[in-house]
Design a protein that fits this description.
By secondary structure, the chain is α+β, with helices and mostly antiparallel strands. The chain is built from ten helices and 16 strands. It has two domains: about 70 residues, RRM (RNA recognition motif) domain (Alpha-Beta Plaits), CATH 3.30.70; about 240 residues, Ribonuclease H-like superfamily/Ribonuclease H (Nucleotidyltransferase, domain 5, 2-Layer Sandwich). The protein starts with 6 loop residues before the first strand and ends in a 12-residue tail after the last strand.
Length: about 375
């Protein structure tokens, strides 16, 4: 293994540099990319690396801005066997990162590669860091992130939307379709489904764009139920299905932190933005088990080293065929389950990637 001082890391590579090797003053012994904008450069010795570092730090990628390059930290093992699966946490946030086979190097490699993704949500009853060690140790958090699940609950909300609207993080969308499918990861079969249409109250009239995109008609939501009712009905369905199979979600008790069943979504939008913000605006009680989930897109990107244009592109990339109507919540959830099973069969480690309340248990949920 090379001395860590002979390894450089380049982050936030600008789009103007399509190939980092073209700007290197001397060729690297090894070039290891991590996505489009990060790369590790390994040199023969510390002196060579230092010389390259000094020259690259003087490289001006645009007026007044230098290339982001530094020496890689010590105690980082080779990253050729890097896989997704480890989540570390901070107050009101969770972080998704890659981890190599030696867990001792996790903090250094993940932080330096810039692969930490954080969601901040004001839960109103912030986490208590002082009491965290009593029920959520570093070891248990590690196990939470690397466990393989027997069942997955795949959810894909559809929400009010308009043409030419603001970016997703600024939208005030309301859930109008609440679908969920429970899939057996041993067989790949969907064993139970939940589906309800939800009545929007902030913007009760659907836009023509929304109806065309989702296939959801005005009458469907007019005859739907309030979101709080849908959540209550979902919880009853969830309780029944989990008990029938002796399943437990993550962090439901101190002695079973990992659980054997987890929620899955495509991106963090469903749980981290759409549901979280709507419940916050309407002051609805959101079950805390919705605070942990697997972002399948994040796992997909890391495992296949491919950034899909959209969900349908991801389905096609692994050789599957989309079944049903795109942007139908129920059909999307079913196809999400099929993709998750395919990825697991391909060896992708499906693990919790997000936790909005890392220092809290979900013991207040009566499941």
């Amino acid at each position: 293994m090379s001395d860590s001082k002979s390894i450089l890391i380049v982050k936030n590579i600008p789009r103007s540099i399509s190939d980092i090797t073209t700007v290197l003053p001397s060729a690297a012994k090894e070039v290891k990319p991590f996505g489009r904008r990060r790369v590790l450069l390994t040199y023969e010795n510390e002196q060579s690396a230092q010389t390259v570092l000094e020259q690259l730090q003087q490289l001006e990628i645009k007026p007044g801005k230098q290339l982001n390059v530094s020496v890689f930290r010590k105690n980082v093992i080779p990253v050729t066997t890097t896989k997704i699966a480890k989540a570390t946490t901070s107050s009101k946030a969770t972080q998704t990162k890659l981890h190599p086979s030696n867990e001792a190097a996790l903090p250094q490699i993940s932080k330096q590669l810039g692969l930490l993704e954080t969601i901040y949500v004001d839960e109103g009853n912030g986490a208590d860091k002082n009491n965290a060690s009593s029920y959520l140790t570093k070891r248990s958090k590690s196990q939470l992130s690397t466990q393989r699940y027997k069942y997955l609950i795949c959810i894909d909300f559809e929400a009010t939307c308009w043409a030419d609207q603001a970016p997703p993080q600024w939208r005030e969308s309301e859930v109008i379709e609440f679908p969920a499918v429970l899939m057996n990861m041993q067989t790949g079969k969907i064993e139970a489904e939940f589906h309800k249409y939800v009545m929007p109250i902030e913007s009760p009239k659907l836009s023509a764009y929304c109806t065309e995109l989702t296939g959801i008609k005005q009458q469907m939501v007019d005859n739907g139920m309030p979101l709080q009712t849908a959540i209550m009905m979902f919880q009853e369905w969830l309780r029944k299905e989990l008990r029938a199979r002796n399943l437990q979600l993550p962090k439901m008790s101190k002695d079973k932190m990992i659980g054997n069943c987890a929620f899955v979504s495509w991106t963090d939008w469903d749980f981290g933005i759409c549901l979280a913000k709507e419940c916050q605006r309407k002051r609805l009680k959101k079950p805390s088990y919705f605070n942990q989930w697997i972002d399948l897109r994040a796992v997909f990107r890391a495992w296949y080293k491919y950034k899909p244009l959209n969900f349908a592109d991801a389905i096609s990339h692994v050789g599957l065929t989309f079944e049903g109507r795109q942007h139908s919540g129920q059909d999307d959830a079913r196809n999400l389950a099929a993709l998750a099973y395919k990825m697991a069969c391909d060896g992708a480690p499906l693990a919790i990637t997000k936790d909005l309340v890392p220092y809290q248990l979900n013991s207040n949920c009566m499941l």
